[in-house]
Amino acid sequence: MHVLVCDPISPRGIEFFKARPEFRVTVLPKRLSEAELIPLLADVDAMVVRSETKVTRKLMESAPNLKVVGRAGVGIDNVDVEAATQRGVVVMNTPGGNTITTAELTFFMLGALARKIPAAHASMVAGKWDRKLFQGTEIAGKTLGVLGAGRIGTEVAKRALAFGMRVVAYDPFLNDTRAKQLGIEAVSDPDAVYRQADFITVHMPVTPETRGMLNAEAFSRMKPGVRLINCARGEIIHEDDLVAALTSGRVAGAALDVFITEPLDAAHPLRALPNVILTPHLGASTEEAQEKCGLEVAEIITAFLLTGEVRNAVNLPGVDAKTYELVKPYLALGEKLGSLLGQLVKTPVDRVHITYGGRARELPQTDPITRAVLSGYLRQGSVADINNINVRSAAASLGLAVEEKRSDEAVTFNEWLHVQLFNGSEKVLSAGGTFFGSPNNPRIVRLYSTPVEIPISGTLLLLNNQDRPGIVGKLGTVLARHQVNIASMSLGREAAGGEALTVLVLDSSPSAECLAELAADPAISNVQVVRL
Prior knowledge:
CATH superfamily of the largest domain: NAD(P)-binding Rossmann-like Domain
Strand order of the largest sheet: 8-7-6-9-10-11-12
Strand content: 15-25%
CATH topology of the largest domain: Rossmann fold
Number of helices: 17
Number of strands: 22
């Protein structure tokens, strides 16, 4: 079998491949373009890449024997996963290789920021001896706020605790039980972190909700003199607002490894600020991390090619073709139900209960569907590198119990997939879905225990409103004033004249001003936007 290593990986990874007599290994000396790669792919069984090589649909179409693409690292933006799935190609990554490395960099940045080490070093190199200029602050006894308590966030928290810091963490999926096990305090919203933290570190993925979340408004709610560390994603911080906050002193300092646009422009104002530490995206740049990722990608590809074992797959694993065809429609429905709930939930959750009813209870396998539900749900929080293999262990690491039930109870629909979120014995939120007419027409048909009819894609505007004449016209008028078109509408209510649930499918995302105008109406509440 032919293994093509397209991007540099650690020598140990190469040696691992070459030690197997079943493999013929080709290591490319440099990154090749798509046109240059195509002639080399005729007999390739496995491709190994990092972030440089783009594995496109066209490349895969030129590789008839291709069985697996291995990414030495976490991100898979350079791999067309949909095309790979359609062609039966397994895509694998190495999500655990950079956890410790990134956590360590974060904590070292925190220490360097507290003691002004880079500026003091630069002063010494310049021949100066300015002790008073570089007076720092102790971290013992200070409060570290962690935004995103996934693998990396919890590793940072452990190190902070060892240095005598108090740790408060916000994560939609961090419950009190897991927080107590870690020795940290879980809070219900980012504002609770802003109010308490002397240092704030970011470990969240980029989503519509987190993009630019650390902006002027957020800085105004933080403790004066707070210090920020970001080794996660540059897009989470509004850079212009951060420059203003650093200049005014509202934010005392920032240590940044990631930026909205990389490489950072030579004239970017962050470069000129004395209270900023900048590094060129070094989160995974250690010998150990590169060694781990290179060796791990060799191990998982070898296991797959020689034994069929699937680890760290980011597309559907472990089902035969016949079963896949049966469960395939439910995968999209389940993922969207999970995504919907993940975007709507506002309180901690410690249990996910998934019910398979009607014909769904007769499926030969439900595990891939459960994993799809969990993936959609967890991707809305701090777990950025979820795939269908690691999603159950990720849920367990967050203290999230997963229950599945094949129900014999009578249901209104031929197929029924119902997802409920619990905190202890209290049901927090639920949503159910089915198919209208055929598996190609999935719908979400119950939300908050209220009948609805929602497609599983698009921009949704959800709100509660008083069930009275004129409310629908008011909604249409406000949206029209802000140039937002309504594609479809679903209204659900328990009783006439009471509170109703309205779900609008929109052709575009409403502006903040539009949402504020809706929320200001006393007859309207709980205005939320969800993107499926």
